[in-house]
Amino acid sequence: MQTPTGRHYGARFALPLLVTILASQAPDAAADDKVATITLGEVSAQGSRDVGDATRLMRGAAQRELSGLPASSTPTSPKRRIILSLALVRVETKEMPAGASVECSVSATLRTARDGALFAILEGRARAEGGGSREALEAEALRAAVKGTIARIPSALR
């Protein structure tokens, strides 16, 4: 490109602009290398009346919660792959005059994908009460317990 005086200035401005663009993209790429990749592994619900439904519910809740974890909350060594396994520990339902109360406990383990080394055990608990159906209250408590368990992952990775 020429100025009215006939000077070329395109190369003078293009190189700094290119360097600025590349520099602004580099930290993002470096940050991606330092973010843990968390994969959902085994999910078991042996303490539930309906193991298949509880397992599906836990798996769905865990996948939603994992996808909602901000990348900045899972810093770790470069390209570290982690496997999260969940287990329903306890579901206790008590009938009350105005409905029911459900307490639920979920435990989780975090291990490295490369060698299977276990490095964290997490637990989440929740209670749901109300006049709804027992199944709906159990599902609500189970989802909340999974959410509480997964919310502890960032602190376990620090």
Structure description:
The protein is of the alpha+beta class and 158 residues long. It folds into two domains: 1-33; 36-156, Rossmann fold (3-Layer(aba) Sandwich), CATH 3.40.50. The chain contains four helices and four strands. The protein has helices spanning 10-33, 51-68, 134-150, 153-156; strands at residues 37-44, 81-96, 99-112, 118-130. It has a four-stranded mixed sheet. Helix 2 packs parallel to helix 3 (134-150). It is elongated, with a radius of gyration of 24 Å. It starts with 9 loop residues before the first helix and ends with a helix. Residues 8-33 have low confidence and may be disordered.
List the topology elements.
Elements: H1 10-33, E1 37-44, H2 51-68, E2 81-96, E3 99-112, E4 118-130, H3 134-150, H4 153-156
Parallel strand pairs: 1-2
Antiparallel strand pairs: 2-3, 3-4
Label this structure with key terms.
4-stranded mixed beta sheet, Rossmann fold
- SSE string, helix = H, strand = E? HEHEEEHH
Rounded mean pLDDT score:
78
What is the total number of structural domains?
2
CATH superfamily of the largest domain: ABC-type transport auxiliary lipoprotein component
Question: Could you say what the CATH topology of the largest domain is called?
Answer: Rossmann fold
CATH architecture of the largest domain: 3-Layer(aba) Sandwich
For the terminal residues, how far apart are their CA atoms? 52 Å
Classification by helices and strands? alpha+beta
Number of strands: 4
**Helix fraction by DSSP (H/I, runs of at least 4):** 25-40%
Q: Which percent band covers the strand fraction?
A: 25-35%
The largest beta-sheet arranges its strands as 1-2-3-4
Shape: elongated
Biggest beta sheet attributes:
4 strands, mixed
Unreliable spans: 8-33
Helical stretch tally = 4
Classified by CATH, the class of the largest domain is Alpha Beta
